[in-house]
Amino acid sequence: MSLQELKEKLWKAKHLVVLTGAGISAESGVPTFRGEGGLWKQFRAVDLATPEAFARDPELVWEFYNWRRELIAPLSPNPGHFALAEIERRIPHFTLITQNIDGLHKKAGSTNIIELHGNLWKVRCTRCETTSEDLSMPLPKLPSCRSCGSLLRPHVVWFGEMLEPKVLNAAFDAISSCDLMIVIGTSGTVQPAASMGIQAKRNGALAAEINLEPTPYSDVYDISILGKSGEILPKLLCRKEE
Ligand code: BJW
Ligand code: ZN
Asked: Using a 6 Å cutoff on CB, does residue 38 contact ligand 1?
């Protein structure tokens, strides 16, 4: 199915769920994880994005996240983020599920956002679990909790950690009631996000994908559009035929 068909389905949708991954922020300059130049090509995830890595060397892990905060802070949303914010304003019911921690969807004006893997701009206490936004840069090498003085950690979901049940339930609630789901810029390698599009299909929704290259799910979804999300999403906004 084509872009035109997706456009038709989009403007008839009553509840649209969009799932985004690192690809949507690539055109803003945020590195992806697995493609060319991806973070996990340069760094080992087991050294930086697991609870074991943080227990072993919290300073190294904080160095990695401080570096990413500095890299991402000056970046702006791209036309893909802005198009999704505009679609939200025009569709009766819209839920944006993102695996990204960069905060660019909010910057673009999206409001109903479920952040599956947390947020780069939030910190959480390892003892009392107090979670707060902290935009200061750089954070101390080993930042500590204002309430109890214990070590803070990034408020993100690492490999081997459970996603917050409240967040996961909100995502699956949206998926179970949507009539259209669009999966954008994710390689479909990390669970449980990877199977969310399939879940939507099982629940009777139409599932579409927008990605630079084919993914393991491209043949399973009803519509697969290859290309840059920053170029394709704005085209969905113009209602006339292309
Ligand atoms: C463009 C583009 C452009 C480029 N336009 N497109 C079931 C089966 C097997 C394993 C598991 C399972 N359940 C759980 C697991 C273990 C694990 C997992 O999935 N491992 C797999 C790798 C095998 N999952 C977990 O541990 C999760 N926890 C969990 O499920 O708890 C329960 C449990 C625990 C233990 C055992 C079993 C169950 C937690 C996962 C947390 C992931 N965390 C990270 C880091 C977050 C913080 C941080 O950023 O530092 O999240 S890893 C990283 O991958 C990050 C991302 O959100 C995530 C997904 O990456 P994404 O977005 O898909 O990016 P890429 O780079 O992979 O792809 C980019 C795509 O964009 C590409 O396709 C490009 O083509 C495309 N693209 N430019 C459009 N312009
Ligand atoms: Zn604390």
From this structure: yes
Nearest atom (ligand 1) to Cα of 65: 50
CATH architecture of 3-30+77-117+162-236: 3-Layer(aba) Sandwich (3.40)
Instruction: Report which DSSP code applies to 216.
Output: T
Structure tokens at 147: 């309430």
Alpha-carbon gap, residue 230 to 27, rounded angstroms? 7
**pTM listed for this prediction:** 0.97
> Residues 141-185: pLDDT tens digits?
999 999 999 999 999 999 999 999 999 999 999 999 999 999 999
Check whether 242 has a pLDDT greater than 90: no
Q: How far apart are CA 239 and CA 176, in angstroms?
A: 27
* Residue 52 pLDDT exceeds 60: yes
The residues spanned by each domain of the chain are: 3-30+77-117+162-236, 33-74+122-156
Spacing, Cα 135 to ligand 2 middle (Å): 18
Q: How far is ligand 1, taken at its centre, from the CA of residue 130, in Å?
A: 25
